[in-house]
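ARCHIVE CARD
Drawer: 12
Card no.: 0347
Subject: one protein chain, sequence and derived structure
Cross-reference: see card 0346
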Amino acid sequence: MEALVIVKALFSAPYMGLGLPIEQEALVERLRKALDLTLYEAKLYMAMLQGAGDPKEASVMSGVPLPRIYDVVKVLESKGMVYKDPNGWYRAVSPRALAAASIARLEEDSRKRAREIAELAEALERLESKQRVPRYVIVKGAYNIVSAAVDFFKASAVVYVAVSTVMARDGLGEEVVKSLLSYIGDLRVLLVEGALVERVSEMGVPVKVTQLPLLDSISSRVGLMILVKEPLGEPVAVAVEDQAQAEPYFRRLSSLWTSIGGGPQGNT
């Protein structure tokens, strides 16, 4: 809308003689920047808008040297800002028409730019998927494990959390489930021991209990995190973002989940 404001102001600005008043000088600068004009182009358009009837008058009113007038007016014509009059000279396109045309060009340029950016993003995503290498991390400590779990699994559709011994202690399993629940629509908890079943179930998460030995783990189709306890007792997790390694484990947990009967807290 900058162009519309400028040209409407120009339309109402009276001609003040050889020099331009401060207000018009400011408008010249705004017009130049808004429509990407040279100083001569902006001043000549203003002079013609104010009724310059021939090259000499246009030169006097605009300050553009007379030998340059025809060159500059041809540029304005190519930009759709002036048109040739039957008497051989040129007239300025009305401010409202100029504004409408300028805004239309800006909108089309913006749409084109947006399309180019979207296409670039798609191309970069394809490149990323082709060149992505497995991502591995080793994290130590309950707080870091919870943060890494969110980072690795927040975009997953289905995630299994298997709680055995490491996550059954000190509320780690509950913190992992609580943090992932904010991001994952289908979060499923498998408990080797039933100690956490009531507290986790209160979070509204499907829970099933099994007597089969399971590693403390978090699993999706593309990510896998295994938790162990170091000799001093602090939990340590190894996480990998690699579908080739993660999906077989995910499928095993999925099969186990399906096989467990007796509702969400059934036993096997």
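Annotation on reverse: The CA atoms of residues 167 and 190 lie 11 Å apart. The two ends are 69 Å apart (CA to CA).
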